[in-house]
Design a protein that fits this description.
Elements (H helix, E strand, L loop, with lengths): L1 H6 L8 H9 E9 L12 E8 L2 H8 L4 H11 L7 H9 L3 H10 L13 H11 L5
Antiparallel strand pairs: 1-2
Helix pairs in contact: 5-6, 6-7
């Protein structure tokens, strides 16, 4: 159940796993399956998850000229230190100045005090598009 919930996470609970899966597919949670439905009964509950391939975000990446490699490089850096503000992770991971990072946040209309788990996929796309001219 916990893995299913992580796959289908929304802004506030996102992880590298949820961003990665949702980039390629639509995740839907269905019925809860209690432990008593199995023999022997496990210590955890289960949930039925459907993962349907969806190219929606890949097309958006292509439209703004961002490669999958660049997208996942930035997202991975963003989630590298979970407790830190996203701008701090990106500043150190991309080796860009604080001014450039904060300018990109402003351009993407994202609060500079956000953490990686709070962004939606659309936010990641806007932020990376704003940063891409400064990345090597």
């Amino acid at each position: 159940k916990e893995v299913g919930e992580r796959l289908a996470a929304t802004a506030g609970d996102m992880s590298l796993l949820s961003v990665s899966v949702q980039m390629y597919a639509t995740v839907t949670l269905h019925d809860y399956v209690p432990p008593q439905s199995f023999w022997p009964a496990p210590q955890v509950g289960s949930i039925i998850v459907s993962i349907i391939r969806d190219n929606h975000y890949l097309q958006k990446l292509e439209k703004v000229g961002i490669t999958e490699k660049v997208f996942f490089r930035v997202v991975k850096i963003g989630f590298s230190a979970k407790r830190k503000m996203l701008h701090a992770n990106l500043r150190s991971g991309l080796r860009l100045s604080k001014e450039i990072i904060l300018s990109a946040f402003k351009k993407a209309q994202i609060n500079e005090n956000v953490r990686a788990q709070e962004l939606r996929l659309e936010d990641w796309l806007k932020l990376i598009a704003a940063l891409q001219e400064y990345m090597v």
